[in-house]
Amino acid sequence: MLTPQAVQSPKTPSVLLEMGVSSIDHYTTRYGGMQTCIEILDTITKCNPVLDLLPEGHYTTRAFITDNDRVLVAERRKTLQVPKDMNLLEWAQQQNLQHSQGTDDFLTTISDPQLVIGVKTAVLTNFARRQAIRETWGQRAKHLNVQVIFLGCVPIMSDIPNEADRKRLRDAVKMERTVYRDLLTEELECEDSYRNLANKVKAFFDLAATMYLQTPYVMLADDDMYLQVDKLLRLLEDFSGKKPVYLGQSWNHIYTRKSAPVREESHQSNLPKAQYPRSELPPFAFGPHYVVSMDWARFISKNYW
């Protein structure tokens, strides 16, 4: 049960979650099929599995209360005097109208880069993250012969009822593509949603294998990652001339724990038996960041696209 220990303020209560177990096996057996739920005024409002692909290890956890408007985050940013993030529409409104003229075709600016980094991003909602990358490690990557591309797919606007609002968003996306020439949408031939993430990745490998014939390495990263590109390039020097190369963080190796495929159809990581019948997954680098040599990208492009 969740037991209140010390309430510091109405927004930041402290709670203790007690689990009486003596081993990982006992923990899995006892709590593997259970869920942790939040109940407010005798109404269960949110439940999540206690175990959700959690690797073996020692953890310090926090439980906190926030809201959809990110009030607590906003207060923290105000305390730190962090400038307000600009969304896509706000940015587009500030741009010179001359940017809206001309083509929005994707144009690479680096010939035969040493590394191509595909950054997975949500086109309509994650503009601020793309800007943060462009102004920090993405800018420095250009001087290191590294190409940074934002992987967006076609934005889904079916939940936006007003046609005028949809047009403003389409125009803003077009303007971003025209100004920065680093954002892919229609080129990847997929819809921009989390459930279509695998298709986005496959489409990027296909584009990279076709467009960057002399590039030795391809990387995938999330748009909330900060990459030290200079250190990454030095690491890749150790693998020069070696094929294939597949680098990343693997739970199997870090936590000496085998991973099982998720069979629940509603789960975002569902892997049906028809696609993969085995009960264990081979070691793999998990999603936020990994690097493969271009021969792997070509293999994926040839066999899975």
TrEMBL record:
Q: List the GO molecular function terms.
A: hexosyltransferase activity
Q: Which GO terms describe its cellular component?
A: Golgi membrane
- Topology versus the membrane: Single-pass type II membrane protein
Which is one Pfam family of this protein? Galactosyl_T
Primary residence: Golgi
Entry EC number(s): 2.4.1.-
InterPro entries in the record, alphabetically?
Glyco_trans_31
The record's subcellular location field reads: Golgi apparatus membrane
Task: Provide the coiled-coil residue spans.
Answer: none
**Which keywords annotate this record?**
Glycosyltransferase, Golgi apparatus, Membrane, Signal-anchor, Transferase, Transmembrane, Transmembrane helix
Tell me which PANTHER family the record gives. BETA-1,3-GALACTOSYLTRANSFERASE 6 (PTHR11214:SF3), BETA-1,3-N-ACETYLGLUCOSAMINYLTRANSFERASE (PTHR11214)
Please report which protein family the annotation says this sequence is part of. Belongs to the glycosyltransferase 31 family.
Quote the protein name from its UniProt record. Answer: Hexosyltransferase
